[in-house]
Amino acid sequence: MSSSTAPSPSHDDHDADREKGAPDPCAGPARDLWTVDEHLADVLASVSPLEPIELQLLDAQGCVLVEDVTVPVALPPFDNSSMDGYAVRVADVAGATEEFPAVLTVIGDVAAGADGLPEVGPGQAARIMTGAPLPPGAEAVVPVEWTDGGTGGGAATGMSAASAAPEGAAGEVRVHRAAEARAHVRARGSDVRAGGLALAAGTVLGPPQIGLLAAIGRGTVRVRPRPRVVVLSTGSELVQPGEQLGPGQIHDSNSFALAAAARDAGALAYRVGAVADDAESLRSTIEDQLIRADLIVTTGGVSVGAYDVVKEALTADGEVDFRRLAMQPGKPQGFGAIGAERIPLLALPGNPVSSYVSFELFVRPAIRALMGVEDLHRPRVRAVLDADAPLRSPAGRRQFLRGVYDRETGAVTPVGGAGSHLIAALAHADCLLVVPEETESVAPGAELEVVLLG
User: Fold this and answer.
1) CA-to-CA distance for 359 and 255, rounded, in angstroms?
2) Less CB within 10 Å around the terminal CB: N or C of the chain?
3) Strands 411-414 and 380-385, bridge-based pairing
């Protein structure tokens, strides 16, 4: 039975037992092992970016642009005020002070969206709100705090609504400070100019990019859609979180972790309830999911146990190849394409750490490739090992250990052990420590490669 929270002889990837000297049930010539890089290359060679579609702006969040977007009109489209205050001529407020303010006649209000703007002449001012167009004749804006607000008193602390303003927003205003030309004015085209490049093809659309597209008037955009990823776990012992456990049962954690990881990678994730250890049920479930999948991920049932149904269900027609990788955890892996549409399927081990590490190394890059982004992989850095004892690693296997990375010191500390069932340690890690195949021991203070997960 495949396990998502604890190791079992039939569904574990057998790493722990093999390192203790137990014979490997799958043992064969070393040439039968795939390297991590070979398996990843095989996966990526079979995955192509999804075809572009036109989407509404909010539906395009997280998607990748497939064409350059140019600016149809300047942004902002007109000179406008960056402050609440008064639109004035520079000469009229030259030399103004608290003791000798410039006294100007208020000729009206200019609000955001206003039309039919008043023209500001010598000795005049127009009350203006933030974002409102600069009226003709005006050369600068003086903030309301530099004036008496038209009250005839001292410096104002705010602006009243036009309906509540003294003299019906007319009368006089005293300006206590001079202003330079274009002061507090946002110039037309100061953000982007008409005909300029707003966003380049290949841009991933986040909230700021969506906002820019809306600001320049784009209601839709052509993008590669977010991949639809179906995640399912296998095992008759699996029970949904929130349900009572019976004898020999455990809660299904893998499908939740991997669905969340798929979303984190940029996909639309669909989690399917755990499938019992029955090959026919598994085949039927997968066939039902093909209609909404760009990628299918299974977890559990890929090793050598009597109930490892993923291999049984998916090897009959030769569509999925099950292989052994020179890595720990995650030695057993499956990959292929199924259905008439040849939907990629990655079959991962059942133990939590094995499945999550496998997802990060193989599934996440595949999702990113479907999206059409350039950065397929997590960032990697070199870090100094902060540990009390050397790290041990099996010869000929690339080992991935959980750890916590300190960005300030550049040090990495292991979290938990090498067991592929230690989900609590995984939950507290923010990186993977990579021990190369040819390395059997890493001493404290030595440098090693670290994959950053956050």
Assistant:
1) 11
2) C
3) parallel
